[in-house]
Amino acid sequence: MAEHQFDSPQAPEISIRHSTDGDIEGIFALYGQRSCYAGTLQRPYPSLTFWQKRLKDLPENCYSLVAVREGKIVGQLGMEVYSNARRKHVANFGMAVCESARGQGIGSALLGAMIDLATNWLAVRRIELEVYTDNEAAVALYKSHGFEIEGEAKDYAFRDGRYVNAFLMARCC
């Protein structure tokens, strides 16, 4: 299995690789953390069966990268490259980082690996994402990797009893 090591003062010994069936329980636990489901479109109390169905047989145009440190899943990024003939040059992604591992370069390592895969191997020229407007740390991370805010979606999603807005961001290569 292809694996990339990222050694930096912020992210010591992080491996980025495509997820396997053996990672599903770790991904399930990651998205069971309140800030991970609240910061994405996931719901509270996910079932293991849901994650098994979602990750076991990914379509050919979908990728699931995990960040692993000391044998533990500390981050996950899911990317879909659009299959529509007129949008095959575009991908969209979502990600989460373990609450106890934030600010340690894990999100940056996942983004770097995904950007490399998309632009250098999959001929993707545009990468899109949606991020809640109140997630300042994520917005700053995405901007540091060349993403720009292209718009704002009002009442984008229902979270914690109210509707929240999201920025529409993209990086064109």
From TrEMBL:
Q: Does the keyword Transferase apply?
A: yes
Q: Which Pfam families match?
A: Acetyltransf_1
Q: Which Gene3D superfamilies match?
A: 3.40.630.30
- Record keywords: Acyltransferase included? yes
Task: List, alphabetically, the SUPFAM superfamilies matched.
Answer: Acyl-CoA N-acyltransferases (Nat) (SSF55729)
Q: Which residues form the N-acetyltransferase domain?
A: 14-173
Mind telling me which PROSITE patterns this protein's record contains?
GNAT (PS51186)
InterPro entries in the record: Acyl_CoA_acyltransferase, GNAT_dom, YpeA/RimI_acetyltransf
- A GO MF label: acyltransferase activity, transferring groups other than amino-acyl groups
Q: Which UniProt keywords apply?
A: Acyltransferase, Transferase
**Protein name according to UniProt:** GCN5-related N-acetyltransferase
Gene source species: Shewanella loihica (strain ATCC BAA-1088 / PV-4)
